[in-house]
Amino acid sequence: MILGQSLGVDRSAVWFGVNLKKSLTAMLSALLISSTAMAEKKEVEKLRNYSMRLAMETTASKETIWSLWEDVENWKQFDTLLEYSYLDEGDSFELGARGAVKAKDSPKTRFEITAIEHGKSFTETLKLPLYQRIELLRYFLEGEGEGEDDNTVFVHEVRFRGRLKWFSHYLAAKTFRRELPLVMNRLRAVAEKKEASSRKWVKR
């Protein structure tokens, strides 16, 4: 007799849990983990409806941050465990574009750009088993609440979606809260270094 049956557990539920956990693990490795970054101690804000977000301030301009976001093939600059990332052939960083990311020792994960306002924000949607999905939003904080000295404030928001979003959240939320500051801190470091290099070049 199968263990799940002996415990009164539906085999489809067991299959879903195992496969969803594998997908979430791969996705998190591909999109969030950056083990070499030294992140500042910032708390990820918990939002309603199984969502969360983190805002971070940088001296880099919005244009520089955006240039790193839209350069899909070089996302590994701020995600050091990423082997590669790309948009499908013929696609550009536009609404409806699709692509994939591959982290070390993890399967490839597909994504789609489901919302975009160039220079301001975009949403990357990841599809999980049984029609579950995770929406990753990147945008800038505008107006009241912006950074000091006209610094840029960039935001990464995570939304779990689907009828079983509570389960996806249960499996992945803790990892997101731990790893999200690492990647964002690395992104900030790369952006500020890029601008510093540009200034040195101009002075020559």
Roughly how many Å is the radius of gyration? 18 Å
Q: Please, how many helices?
A: 4
- How many extended strands? 8
Distance between the termini: 76 Å
Rounded mean pLDDT is 81
Widest β-sheet, arrangement of strands: 1-2-8-7-6-5-4-3
Q: What's the helix-strand series? A: HHEEHEEEEEEH
Q: Residue ranges: pLDDT <50 for 5 or more in a row?
A: 1-9, 33-39
Counting helices, strands and paired strands, the structural category is alpha+beta
What share of the residues does DSSP label as strand, in percent? 25-35%
Q: What share of residues is helical?
A: 25-40%
Q: Outline, from the CA principal axes?
A: globular
| Sheet with the most strands, sense and barrel status | 8 strands, antiparallel
Provide an overview of this structure:
It is a single chain. The N and C termini lie far apart (76 Å). It contains four helices and eight strands, in the order ααββαββββββα. It has an eight-stranded antiparallel beta sheet with strand order 1-2-8-7-6-5-4-3. The radius of gyration is 18 Å and the shape is globular. Helix 2 packs parallel to helix 4. It is of the alpha+beta class and 204 residues long. The N terminus is likely disordered. It has a domain of 138 residues.
